[in-house]
């Protein structure tokens, strides 16, 4: 900044004149003006302090310019002129939570004090940070500098949602008979997670299966995962299924993921009859919805296909798919289409191989996993209307066809409510096979 030829003797700070606009002047003059021996680092720190003081007051785009530097060789002093313009202030109108998947700012806005018109000062941002932490939805909140994007000033925070695990409880009730499932997921360090699924009938005895699945996801930051699964199934007869799966996955830009999986499955029956299956297949998961609770745009899908052999040498081919998409939305209302399909091609189909569908997270109007078939397809059209940030009502109709079953149509309605513990949903639906016997679905879902 100062020619080396002038630094024959130690320069001292002389006058520092600041030409500031009306807004910046009272803020700038509270910054301590440097005195004593001149150093570029001291001057740079002084200019940074002016900028930080303006940031603290809510002015994030100031103009700070060193307009003149004059060295008085007689007095060996340096005189500096600085021009400061505060610029437009940033207000707390548009808040962005980076890392929020379930609990976006629009979702939890009504639960914290409204600061939408206030300046984005340091104290205001710290107060909002504390409010976000106190809301109970996030385990960490970090304030970052405001940014200007698409003509809008954003006040961003980096958050980590509280997702210690996943709970998905489902109940279906019809004519005094309960059929439901409980799915628990726990995620630990190093990507290791455990899932426990229990399906039951009338809440008194184990009726269908008890499933435990452990997944080691992305081993040592590689795209590989290992899953071990054990299932005790009680249907026509009691049998045990043990399976091990290795998956290699590649992620593309966006939300699409592609993977190759290899599975070995052993089925053991009480009479010591057993069957070993080896399958290899391809899996892809993609798409993204704008919001997990009430999406207004986007779509998502999952496709899996595999082929393998049994111990007796017979072939097994399997393909399945799921989809959901937003057809139209105006912000408060949305039309959603969803569905699923599966095809199993084999000389003989075992009970453990059949697809299971129906229930609160599938084709509604049927008890949880109440339909089993080697081939099926169902689709539903749903209309949703948002009542407030935490609640929406919906009505739907759909059709399902499965091998060994007559095609059926469903019709139903319900509502979803977002709570701190997760999403609570209650649905009443009937099908054309029994219009007079509706099924009541109750679901509580939390976690990723």
Keywords:
Porin, four-stranded mixed β-sheet, 4 helices, mainly beta, 3 domains, Ubiquitin-like (UB roll)
What is the average of the pLDDT values? 80
CATH architecture of the largest domain: Beta Barrel
Largest sheet: 16 strands, antiparallel, barrel
- The strand count comes to 25
Overall CATH class of the largest domain: Mainly Beta
Shape: elongated
What's the arrangement of secondary structure elements?
Elements: E1 12-20, H1 25-28, H2 40-56, E2 63-72, E3 77-85, E4 95-98, H3 105-108, H4 122-134, E5 138-143, E6 147-149, E7 152-161, E8 165-174, E9 177-187, E10 192-201, E11 205-216, E12 224-234, E13 238-251, E14 257-268, E15 274-289, E16 298-310, E17 315-329, E18 333-346, E19 355-357, E20 371-373, E21 375-388, E22 391-402, E23 408-419, E24 422-431, E25 439-446
Parallel strand pairs: 1-3, 4-7
Antiparallel strand pairs: 2-3, 5-7, 6-7, 8-9, 8-25, 9-10, 10-11, 11-12, 12-13, 13-14, 14-15, 15-16, 16-17, 17-18, 18-21, 19-20, 21-22, 22-23, 23-24, 24-25
Describe what you observe in this structure:
With about 450 residues, the protein is mainly beta. It has 3 domains: about 80 residues, membrane protein fhac (Ubiquitin-like (UB roll), Roll); about 70 residues, Ubiquitin-like (UB roll) (Roll); about 280 residues, membrane protein fhac: a member of the omp85/tpsb transporter family (Porin), CATH 2.40.160. The protein has 4 helices and 25 strands. The strands form 4 sheets. Strands 8-9-10-11-12-13-14-15-16-17-18-21-22-23-24-25 form a 16-stranded antiparallel barrel. Strands 4, 5, 6 and 7 form a 4-stranded mixed sheet that branches. A hairpin with a 5-residue loop joins strand 13 and strand 14. The longest helix has 17 residues. The two termini are about 55 Å apart. About 5% of the residues have low confidence.
């Amino acid at each position: 900044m100062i020619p080396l030829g002038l630094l024959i003797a130690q320069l001292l700070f002389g006058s520092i004149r600041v030409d500031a606009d009306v807004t910046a002047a009272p803020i700038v003059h509270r910054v301590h003006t440097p005195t004593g021996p001149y150093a570029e680092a001291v001057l740079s720190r002084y200019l940074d302090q002016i900028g930080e003081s303006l940031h603290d007051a809510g002015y994030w785009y100031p103009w700070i310019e060193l307009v003149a530097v004059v060295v008085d060789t007689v007095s060996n002093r340096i005189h500096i002129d600085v021009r400061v313009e505060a610029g437009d202030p940033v207000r707390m109108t548009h808040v962005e939570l980076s890392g929020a998947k379930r609990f976006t700012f629009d979702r939890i806005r009504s639960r914290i004090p409204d600061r939408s018109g206030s300046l984005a000062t340091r104290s205001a941002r710290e107060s909002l940070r504390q409010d976000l932490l106190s809301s109970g939805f996030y385990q960490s909140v970090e304030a970052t500098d405001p940014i200007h994007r698409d003509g809008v000033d954003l006040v961003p925070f980096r958050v980590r949602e509280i997702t210690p695990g996943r709970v998905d409880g489902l109940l279906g009730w019809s004519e005094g008979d309960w059929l439901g499932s409980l799915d628990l997921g726990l995620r630990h360090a190093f990507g290791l997670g455990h899932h426990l699924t229990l399906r039951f009938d009338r809440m008194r005895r184990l009726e269908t299966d008890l499933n435990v699945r452990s997944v080691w996801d992305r081993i040592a930051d590689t795209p590989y995962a290992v899953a071990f699964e054990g299932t005790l199934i009680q249907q026509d007869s009691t049998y045990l299924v043990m399976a091990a799966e290795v998956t290699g996955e590649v992620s593309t830009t966006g939300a699409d993921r592609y993977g190759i999986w290899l599975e070995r499955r052993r089925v053991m029956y009480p009479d010591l009859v057993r069957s070993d299956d080896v399958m290899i297949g391809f899996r892809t998961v993609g798409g993204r919805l704008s919001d997990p609770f009430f999406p207004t745009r986007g779509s998502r899908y999952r496709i899996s296909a595999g082929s393998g052999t049994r111990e007796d040498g017979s072939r097994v081919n399997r393909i399945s798919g799921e989809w959901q998409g937003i057809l139209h939305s105006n912000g408060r209302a949305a039309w959603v289409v969803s569905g699923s399909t599966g095809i199993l091609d084999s000389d003989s189909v075992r009970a453990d191989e059949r697809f299971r569908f129906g229930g609160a997270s599938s084709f509604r109007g049927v008890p949880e996993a109440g339909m089993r078939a080697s081939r099926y397809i169902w689709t539903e059209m749903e209309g949703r209307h948002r009542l407030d940030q935490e609640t929406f009502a919906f009505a739907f109709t759909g059709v399902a066809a499965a091998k060994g079953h007559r095609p059926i149509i469903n019709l139903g309605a319900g509502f979803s409510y977002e709570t701190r513990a997760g999403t609570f949903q209650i649905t009443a639906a009937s099908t054309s096979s029994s219009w007079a016997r509706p099924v009541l679905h109750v679901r509580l879902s939390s976690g990723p």
